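ok here's the first one, seq then C-alpha cells
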Amino acid sequence: RSFLAHKLSGLGDVLATEGDLREARRNHEEAFLIRKELGEKGGIAESQLALAQISIEEGNPKAGEELVAKALEEFQKQKRVDDEASAQAVLAQSLLAQKEPARAQESIERALALSGQTSKRSSRFAVAITAANIDAAVGRTAKATSSLKRILAEAVRAGLVSTQLEARLTLGEIALTSNNAAEGIAQLLNVESGQIDLSLVTDDGGSLC
C-alpha cells in the first residue's frame, strides 16, 4: 500500500502540472489517507505539501499555508533538507498570494539558504523560480527575468522538463504583466507548441527518456 500511495502521488503531480486540479487533489488525498493509515509521517507530510500547492492553485492560499506549516514541521523533525526547502518555497507562495510580501520574502530566503545545502537540482530550481516570482511581484522585474532565463538555460542543459515548463510559463506571465506582450506570447507559445511534452514530466522534475 505504501507503493500505491507513491504511485498515486506521482500521478497527482502529473495531473497538477497538466492543470487538472480536481483529479490531482483526488489522487493526493487518496495517497494521504493510505499514508495516514500506515503511519508514514514523512509520506503524510509529502501529501500535505502537494495538497498545499493545489490549494494555492485553486485560489485558497490560507488553506495552503495551514497545510504546508504541518508538512514543514515534520520535515524539520526528520531533517529532510530538500523537502524543507520546497516547503518553505510553497509557504512563500501562499503568503505572496495572501498579499504578505514581507513574510513571503522571509520564507523564500530560508528556502534559498536550505536549497544551497542540497544536491537535488530540481529542488534548487523550484525554489529559485519561486524567488523570481516574488521579485516580480514586488517590482524587481529585471532581476526576476534575468534569474528565470538563467534557470531556463540550465534546465535545458540538465534535461529537466518540468523546470523548463515552469520557467517559460513564469517568464511569459511576467512579460505580459510588464507590458512586454511580444516576449510573453513567445514564451507561452513555446509551451503550447509542444516544445515541452507534459507526458514526459515525472515527479522529480526530470524526463522518463
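and now the second one, same deal
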Amino acid sequence: VPSLLLAARTAAPMEGVNFRLQAATLMLDEDPARAGQILDDTPTGSAVQPAQLRRYLLLRARVALAQSDPNLALGWLSDVRMQDIPLDQSAQVTLGLLKSDAYLLLRSYLASARERVYIHSLLPRETQADNIESIYATLRELPAEVLHRAGEREITNEVRGWLSLAALAKRHQFDPARTVAELERWQGVWAGHPAATNLPRSLQILTE
C-alpha cells in the first residue's frame, strides 16, 4: 500500500486515481478507516473517468458497511453521480449486493431480499443457489402475516412469488406435511419462478 500511495503522488492524475483506488481496496478488510482516509484524498472531479468514479463510490459504500454504517453506505450508493454512470453486469450485481447488505444491517428485510431478487438473473449460475438461500433466509425473518400483506401490495411478479413461498413456509413451519402440500400447490402456481425448480435447501429436504 505505501508503494501505491507513493506512486500516486508522482503519477499522472488519472493514473494516480487508479493507484489510490487500488490501495484503498487492499486496505479495506484490514483497516476500513485507513481505506476511508485514502479515499478522502482521492480526486473525484470532472476529469475522473466514469469507471473510476463508479469504483470510488462502490468502495465508499464498502467502507461504510465495514464500519457498520448502512445509512452512509446507502447514501454513497444513491449518489446522484452514480445515476449518470453506465453499469456493466458486474457493477449491477455489486451495487445490488451492497444495497442488500446495507438494508440487512438496518433490518429492512424485505428491501434487502428485493435487491437480491432484482440481480438474481445476472448472477453466474454457480452462485444462484446461494442467492436463493440468502433471499429465503432474509424473508424468513418476517412474520407470515407481514409477508402475506407485502405480497398483496407487491407489483413485481418475482418478488411476489418469493413472498408467497416464505409466507407459506413460515405459516406451516411446525406442520411439515402441510408445508409439503402447500409447497406443491405453490410450485404449480409459480412454475416459472426461479425457486420453483431450485428450492431453498430446507424445503428441498422436506420434499425428499
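notes on #2: The chain has twelve helices and no strands. The radius of gyration is 21 Å.
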